[in-house]
Design goal:
Blueprint (H helix, E strand, L loop, with lengths): L4 H14 L1 H34 L5 H28 L1 H9 L1 H7 L4 H20 L3 H6 L8 H28 L3 H23 L3 H10 L1 H9 L5 H26 L2
Helix pairs in contact: 1-6, 2-3, 3-8, 3-9, 3-11, 4-8, 6-8, 6-12, 8-9, 8-11, 8-12, 9-10, 11-12
């Protein structure tokens, strides 16, 4: 079957960026990301002055004091903001009745799901791209570990992709946007809390929770430690959520 992914993607991008929600999300993210950048940057500046007086610091300290905390804080903002992006993608279509029209068009369910998900990824890219300027602005003042930054940006993008897939799944479950956002937020918060549980347990339980925690898999990437198991986790988690969305659409289509 010929793929009609591009028309769906373009339709969803237009719909997304014509919505005031997208611009409010961008504004809130830039505001929060700016604050979360300024806070560790001031701490790192103080550390650098102290380290210089004692004979210098290390590149790893830059990662520990600035890069890893920044990406970790960005992941926290995703928990609150990304459900607002994904909540309307199917819920609004169901409430307005346009979902029935969409199903009559020559698009497969996979085209619809991927088109909506890729459109939300476009907004995610628009959120993250300007944050690279934070690091560019300090590049002439300190030696930046660019491979670590590349790993961190890749990690935070994969986290955002996972979160948006969760939001797409919850949006397919209900026609109420508030309920969809609440379900998405609750799920993402649970995934975040798992990292706290991991820190308070030991043995087999700690290993199991660590494998399930999305934040635990992000932490290694924010420090430049690229492990295939972390990438596999993000890919499988995202595929599982998108597959679940497909199954929900199929079940509701034939009722």
């Amino acid at each position: 079957m010929k793929s009609n992914l591009l028309p769906i993607y373009l339709r969803e991008v237009r719909s997304l960026f014509y919505s005031p929600v997208a611009w409010l999300v961008l504004f809130a993210f830039y505001l929060l990301a700016g604050f979360f950048w300024a806070s560790p940057l001031s701490q790192y500046a103080a550390y650098s002055l102290m380290a210089a007086s004692r004979g210098g610091g290390s590149e790893m300290k830059l990662v520990d004091w600035l890069i890893a905390p920044y990406f970790g804080n960005v992941a926290v903002t995703f928990i609150f903001l990304l459900p607002l992006v994904s909540m309307r993608q199917f819920s609004e279509e169901k409430k307005s009745g346009t979902i029935e029209i969409l199903f009559t068009w020559p698009f497969s369910d996979l085209d619809i799901v991927l088109g909506k998900w890729f459109a939300s990824l476009t907004l995610l890219a628009a959120m993250l791209a300007p944050t690279l300027l934070n690091f560019v602005m300090i590049a002439d003042k300190t030696a930046l570990p660019w491979p670590v930054l590349a790993s961190g940006f890749a990690g935070i993008f994969m986290v955002g992709a996972c979160f948006l897939a969760v939001g797409l799944f919850t949006s397919a479950l209900t026609e109420n946007q508030v309920v969809a956002a609440a379900l998405s937020f609750g799920t993402l918060l649970l995934l975040f809390i798992l990292s706290w549980v991991e820190a308070q347990t030991s043995g087999l339980t700690k290993d199991l929770v660590g494998q399930l925690s999305i934040i635990s898999h992000l932490q290694a990437l924010t420090k430049g430690l690229v492990d295939l198991k972390d990438i596999t986790y993000f890919v499988l988690f995202t595929v599982l959520m998108l597959f679940g969305t497909l199954r929900v659409l199929e079940s509701k289509k034939w009722r």
